[in-house]
Write a structure and sequence with these properties.
Layout lengths: L19 E2 L6 E2 L4 E2 L22 H11 L5 E8 L11 E2 L7 H14 L5 E7 L14 E2 L18 E2 L2 H21 L4 E6 L4 H6 L14 H4 L1 H13 L7 E6 L11 H13 L4
Parallel strand pairs: 3-4, 4-5, 4-6, 6-9, 7-8, 9-10
Antiparallel strand pairs: 1-2
Helix pairs in contact: 1-2, 3-6
Organism: Panagrolaimus sp. PS1159
Protein name: NADH:flavin oxidoreductase/NADH oxidase N-terminal domain-containing protein
Length: about 280
Amino acid sequence: MFKRYPVEKPVSPEILNEPIKFRTSKRVAKNRLLKGAMSERLGTWIDGNLQKSGIPTEQYVNLYDKFGHGGFGTILTGNIMVDFDHLEGAGNVIIEESINNHERRQAFRDVSAAAKVDGSLIIGQISHCGSQTTTLFNPHPYSSSDVQIDSKKIGMEFGKPIALSIDEIQTLVIQKFIFAAKFLYETGFDGVEIHGANGFLLSQFMSPKSNKRTDEYGGSRENRIRIVLEIYNGIREVVPSETGFIVGIKMNSVEFENEGLSVEEAAWMCQEFEVLLIL
């Protein structure tokens, strides 16, 4: 068992019970306790029927009702996938324009209402797996480059990815994140967390290990975060900060891999995002 870090003097945890104000949206969380993102896999799953798949179930709503009564200031959902061809697992909830319907919207309204029953903020984590989509769902997923993930674990095999063209980055990635954010705003969510960590698509763009592009989306660290900035700006065009809608990002601090994102680069990226007033 790891030992606790030594401290010079005890620190009161009382600050965790104080409200905190998000700088850009001006939204206030009632305290500083945050329920982290965990993949639920409690959405509907009907093989071959996309219109009926990826909808929050009664069990999903019940889970967020429990979280809503848990005293959290902010509640983060697990993966809300923006592309049904790039899922993290069966049972993921999905938001995509081609399968937008009343049943799906009402289910997400039920989720947000349940989570906010005792004054918590509810933030939807919007995600795209990219090359980390298993072959069970997509043998040739999209990514920043055609760098394949080497995994021999059963059920965790990943196919050779297809590098997105510049036009495809706009239509197949950026616009889908924007649509999902607007959808969540319209169904009562207080914000979104753009998933740019854990080897998912946006982290594949940010990491020099997986991003071998030579155009404006690759090479320099400025280019590698371009896709994130365009997603953020696109969201703010349809849901301005004046609405009180929160937009944040989850990203890696280090990848522990040769050629991967370093602590120094991650710190620089965080500083760039802070300049843009993300949150």
